[in-house]
Specification:
Two copies of one chain form a homodimer. Chain A contains twelve helices and twelve strands. Chain A has two domains: 130 residues, Rossmann fold; 134 residues, Rossmann fold, CATH 3.40.50.2300. The longest helix of chain A has 17 residues. In chain A, helix 1 packs across helix 3, helix 5 crosses helix 11 and helix 7 crosses helix 8. In chain A, strands 2-1-3-4-5-11 form a six-stranded parallel beta sheet, with helices on one face. The two termini of chain A are 35 Å apart. In chain A, strand 6, helix 8 and strand 7 form a beta-alpha-beta unit. Chain A has 365 residues and is α/β, with parallel strands linked by helices. Chain A is elongated. At the A-B interface, helix 4, helix 5, strand 2, helix 9 and helix 10 of A face helix 4, helix 5, strand 2, helix 9 and helix 10 of B. The first copy, chain A, binds a DNA duplex (16 and 16 nucleotides) through helix 2 and helix 4.
DNA sequence: CTGAAAGCGCTTACAG
DNA sequence: CTGAAAGCGCTTACAG
């Protein structure tokens, strides 16, 4: 395989000049650049990334450490991060930690430190007591709620406010007994905790007393299974409720499934709200009202902050960025007619998802 | 940062010996190994991957090129590939192509050839005419149906048989007018084509004539949206049918959504079958009968074949491996009672998903 | 605008 | 079992 030297020889220049051309160094005579490019074409030359990395101390790779891709939120977040990273010329390696503490620590201990220019990390097992582990010697951007005021740049959203808004939406519809799927009493700090705080804040503002029989704790994982199980236990215990707030969409969808199975009408008997606004919320039956957490904004911001750290242009202190959320109102709370609160008429979700990449015309499937 | 030389000096050995220790070279005196390990610990030494790659000509990275992570099948496949690759010491970079021809060609033109030891590639835009593009000078394993007999190792499943079995299941239930969601007439070869062939084969064996008004072509993308739109068109056109076969689960789930919306009962009025057995098939209402394509087996086999190619131990010719499929019968076809065909009683999906990674006890959410 | 030399941190032969 | 030398293919100063 051709090397930079081969190209230089063929173009009648030095390797340095080839390097300059390839790296976009501006002060090169046009004729020289043309000769170099021609030589590259003729030899089919491709730069050896490892050599460049060794010498330059950069790899052009960032890691995205998340619990698992099978959780739709993280799959969709990963797509967004990959796309945002590409605009910076970065390749992304995804490191599913399984939410296992040891594997999350490995992300930080930097066994792959030399492989990546930086890391975007969404911890699940690590918590506030682990903030010191975040003092690493490579650029790191933190996502999520587990370590709120760590010593690194942090991108998140205002979960308390968003959760309060979702709960308020149910209250506005006249619901008074709102079951929660997704509390996690063992948690010092995390998504479950802050979303529960938002829920409780909304109740308090409405003068409704907290009822712990309505607050279910399906455990640390938030798949559909756990949502279904938690709902089944509520039904088995004959708890009365007129609404359900799932702390993520998969919990809410699992709960919705069991509700319908048991013969409840949604939203007439029970209104259901989720969180994350994953694609399938538009396709459940009925479509699921959900909090859009600003996933694209989170991905882009995380990549931008990381790029600044890698480039050394970030400020000295850590930054805390909050993405904007919105409540997407769908039929699981307002039914098929116009919402009483004046929301737009809700129609079957037949419009294309604007976030879907268009397929070019020539391709097939 | 400490180098191998620093470690060698501290341990009183040569760099070569440190390298031998780190690479598991067997013939090292135990006392030497211990001294080296101690020096590594004391210095906090971590090998520079780029330097190793440059010298060894390997990177320890493989690429997985897929259309997009937002399609649950590919997210779940990616998780499986990442896990399988880890057992070989490989890191995975995921390259979402968006199904765009140009980006799929980039995967093969090897702009990142030096970055990866090999590539697992699931094309969508490239087709049988592009087989020559697969003649690349790096290890490559192909997935999917788009290029059936290309010049490279290929892992797939028997789509025709699986599709035939799914259709037969509907026929066994007495259904005679089975609508298809997912045909793609413009396609020379691909998933849509082979699954349609299986469907037609089953009809023919049952002596049922093909009815083209039942065969919908939602286009190349197989999201929920397209399934919902195709179903809406069937309903708008007043086509009669008593079953629906979605060529993947998201199409089937989109169609299911519109069916229920329109007031049809599933499966009493219309039975629904999907393909891929993604997690949410167990949580739709009703749960969706689907073909399990052997996703884990596909992931592991692809990684194994690639490892043999990278190691130079594979056979000269290309291999064609078929994963085993099974039909997972759920309520969308047999309802909540025992299936007439003798399948097991179907119950609400409250059992845990066995493919879910356990979270360690100490972690939170 | 371009070149010649040195060196990034490893591993590969080659010796012993 | 271990060592000394060379070199993987680039980029970084340093000159001019």
């Amino acid at each position: 395989m051709a090397t930079m030297q081969d190209v230089a020889r063929r173009a009648g220049v030095s390797a340095k000049t080839v390097s300059n051309v390839l790296n976009g160094y501006p002060y090169i005579k046009e004729s020289t650049r043309a000769r170099v490019m021609a030589a590259i074409d003729e030899l089919g030359y491709q730069m050896n990334i490892s050599a460049r990395n060794l010498r330059a101390g950069r790899t052009g790779i960032i890691a995205l450490a998340i619990p698992e891709l099978s959780l739709p939120y993280f799959a969709q977040l990963s797509d967004a991060v990959i796309e945002a990273a590409a605009t910076k010329g970065w390749t992304v390696v995804i490191e599913p930690t399984g939410g296992v503490r040891e594997r999350e620590l490995e992300v930080l201990s930097g066994a792959r430190r030399h492989l990546v220019d930086g890391v975007i990390f969404s911890p699940l097992a690590l918590g506030p007591d682990d903030a010191d582990h975040l003092r690493v010697d490579f650029p790191l951007v933190l996502l999520g709620e587990r370590i709120p005021h760590g010593p690194v740049d942090h991108v998140t959203m205002n979960n308390v406010e968003a959760s309060r808004a979702a709960t308020q939406h149910l209250l506005d519809l006249g619901r008074r007994r709102i079951a929660v799927i997704g509390a996690f009493p063992g948690e010092q700090m995390g998504t479950a905790t802050v979303r529960l705080n938002g829920y409780l804040a909304a109740l308090e503002a409405a003068g409704i007393e907290r009822d712990d029989t309505l607050i279910t704790s399906p455990g640390p994982w938030w798949h559909r299974t756990e949502g279904a199980q938690a709902m089944q236990r509520l039904l088995d215990a004959d708890i009365r409720f007129d609404a359900v707030f799932g702390f993520n969409d998969t919990l809410a969808l699992g709960a919705l499934h069991v509700l319908l199975w048991s013969g409840r009408r949604v939203p007439e008997d029970v209104a259901v709200v989720g969180f994350d606004n994953i694609e399938e919320t538009r396709f459940s039956m009925p479509p699921l009202t959900s909090v859009e957490p600003g996933r694209l904004q989170i991905a882009r911001t995380a990549v931008d902050l990381l790029a600044e750290r890698v480039g050394g242009t970030g400020p000295a202190g850590q930054r805390e960025i909050y993405a904007d959320f919105t409540l997407e109102v769908r039929e699981s709370t307002v039914g098929r007619q116009r919402s009483p609160g004046g929301a737009e008429a809700v129609s079957p979700p037949l419009e294309a998802d604007p976030t879907v990449t268009p397929l070019d015309a020539a391709s097939g499937r």
